[in-house]
Every structure is written in structure tokens, then in C-alpha cells.
Amino acid sequence: MAQRGIMLLEVTVALGLTIFVALIMMKGSLLAVSGNQWTILQTLSDAYLTRETALSNRVPMADLTGPDSGWPDASALDPAYSIQTVTLGTLPGGRTVSGQLTRFRLSETQVENTDTTVSVWRLHSVLSYTVGEHQYVKSRSTLRTL
Predict the structure, then answer these.
(1) pLDDT at residue 65 is higher than 80
(2) Which carries the bigger pLDDT value, residue 108 or residue 47?
(3) Residue burial 4-15, b: 16+ Cβ < 10 Å; e: rest
(4) Which of 18, 68, 89, 98 has its CA 20 to 30 A from that of 82?
(5) How crowded is the C-beta side of 27, counted as CA atoms within 13 Å?
(6) Cα separation, 35 vs 80, whole angstroms
(7) Residues 144, 71 contacting (CB under 8 angstroms)
(8) pLDDT in the model for residue 33
């Protein structure tokens, strides 16, 4: 009778140890997946800002400095910047990731240099997005001359 009790005790300990190892493995898997999600979100936001940089380089200067510019003049009173909600991409599982894009431009032309008629503008694109409870902000700027 004592051997049956010991065998039941051994099986219970083995089952407990197996469950403990399974929980450790599950926690490791969840940590690995959360790292991949972080990498995916960084890639999505970097890709969107790369698109913004390309767009700021190819917009004609006449459109850029016009009244309906995508990058409003920050020294102007109304509106000093434009804000729009954008879709960065889709995560595995179909969940879309969106953020808020803020654009504005600043004049970098040196006032004391009147010998040249060069006009210099710095275009800023600021992207903010939320992951869980944390908010992240990334920005890119482009220097354009006329």
C-alpha cells in the first residue's frame, strides 16, 4: 500500500514540474512575440516617415509656399500647422495602426545676408502614435531651398 502512495506522489510532483516548465516556456514565447510587435510598429512608423520625407522633397516650391500648402508656415498665426489622422499600416490579425501627423515649415533664410536671393525652408513632419498606454513621437525634417 505504501508503494502506491509513493507512486501517486511521484506522478503529482512530475505533473507539477511539467506544468511549471510549460508556464516558463509560455512566458518566454509571449516575450518573444511582444518584441516582434515592437519591431513591426517601429517599421511601420519609420516607413511612413520615409514616405513623408520623399513627399517633402518632391513637392514643387510654388505649392510648398502657397496658401494651401501641406506644410503651413509656423510663423503665420492661422493655421500655424496642419494635423491629420493617418493610417500607418495593419498588424498581423487585421488590426490597423493609426497616428497623428503634424506638419509645418519654418523659414531658415538668413536675414542679414541680403546679397543673395536664396529662400530656405525647413519642413517638419511629426508623427505621434499610441501603443498600449504609451505614446510615441517621431519626427523628420527636410531642408528645401529656392
Answers:
(1) yes
(2) 47
(3) eeeeeeeeeeee
(4) 89
(5) 6
(6) 38
(7) no
(8) 67
